[in-house]
Structures are given as structure tokens and as C-alpha cells.
Amino acid sequence: MKIIKFKQKKIYNYKRKVLIKDLELKMLIGIHKFEKKKKQRVRFNLVINIDQNLFPNDNDLKSIVNYEQVIKTIKRITAKKHYPLLETLAEKIFSKLFENLRIKKILLRIEKLDVIKNTTSVGVEIEKTRSNEH
């Protein structure tokens, strides 16, 4: 009798995401003179798709994408300098976050909360995906 071994099939397919909702920071942003002098409220929302093959390990925070670390990174970026455009700020955030190879895709929404009357907010939403070459 011959024993045939089958490759173990994946039982589940995962889509793992890290969510950061309504992070509000005061920062210098904008092209107008008044925006270069006074900090304004800016809201950040992120959906970060991570490597589906990662398995969380309670003893190793490096086994996950840590939302606290993501928030610290955004705080460092926004505290450093004045950004003329939300798009410029978004690219800086993408650049820094994609240094983490576990991150595969980021949906980032950045909104200015106080700059245009009669609106709750104005802003941009950009989605960026790591190419398969990495």
C-alpha cells in the first residue's frame, strides 16, 4: 500500500487591516499666509492592509503593525515642519509608513477642519499600494 501525502490546504484567507480613525492634530499646513503662522486642526483616517501571512505573536510586537507606532510616526512628521499641500504631507506619511515591509496598502484621508467656512472639513483621500516587485 502506498501512502499519499497531500499538501495542507489553507483553511482561511485573511485580509488583515489596521484602522486609525479620527486622529486629530494641530499643525502648520497650507499655502495661505495665515496658514503659515497659525497651527490648524487636521484629521487623519487610515486603513492599512498588512501582509496576510503575518501571524500575531503576543510576545513580539514586531509580529504586527502597531497602530501606536503609526500614530507616533504621523505625530513626528506633522511636528517637524510646515507642509504647503495635503498631498505633500500624504506622500511623506506614505514614504515613512511603507518602510515597514509588512504594510501592503494604505488608504489615507487627511482633512483640514477649520479652513473653509460652511464645511465640516476639506481634504484629500489617497490610496497607495506597494508594487509586487518588493
List the helices and strands and how they pair.
Blueprint: E1 16-27, H1 33-37, E2 40-50, H2 67-80, H3 86-97, E3 103-112, E4 122-129
Antiparallel strand pairs: 1-2, 2-3, 3-4
Explain briefly what this protein structure is.
The chain has three helices and four strands.
CATH level 1 name: Alpha Beta
Q: What structural class should be given to the helix and strand makeup?
A: alpha+beta
Largest sheet: 4 strands, antiparallel
Strand content: 25-35%
Distance between the termini: 46 Å
The CATH superfamily is identified as GTP cyclohydrolase I, C-terminal domain/NADPH-dependent 7-cyano-7-deazaguanine reductase, N-terminal domain
Strand order of the largest sheet: 1-2-3-4
CATH architecture assignment name: 2-Layer Sandwich
Radius of gyration, taken over Cα atoms and rounded to an integer in Å: 20 Å
Low-confidence stretches: none
- Domains counted in the coordinates: how many? 1
Mean pLDDT: 90
Protein described:
This protein is α+β, with helices and mostly antiparallel strands and 134 residues long. The chain has one domain (16-129): GTP cyclohydrolase I, C-terminal domain/NADPH-dependent 7-cyano-7-deazaguanine reductase, N-terminal domain (GTP Cyclohydrolase I, domain 2, 2-Layer Sandwich). Helices cover 23% and strands 31% of the residues. Helix 2 (67-80) packs across helix 3 (86-97). The longest helix is centred in the middle third of the chain and has 14 residues, at 67-80. It starts with 15 loop residues before the first strand and ends in a 5-residue tail after the last strand. The relative contact order is 0.20. The mean pLDDT is 90.
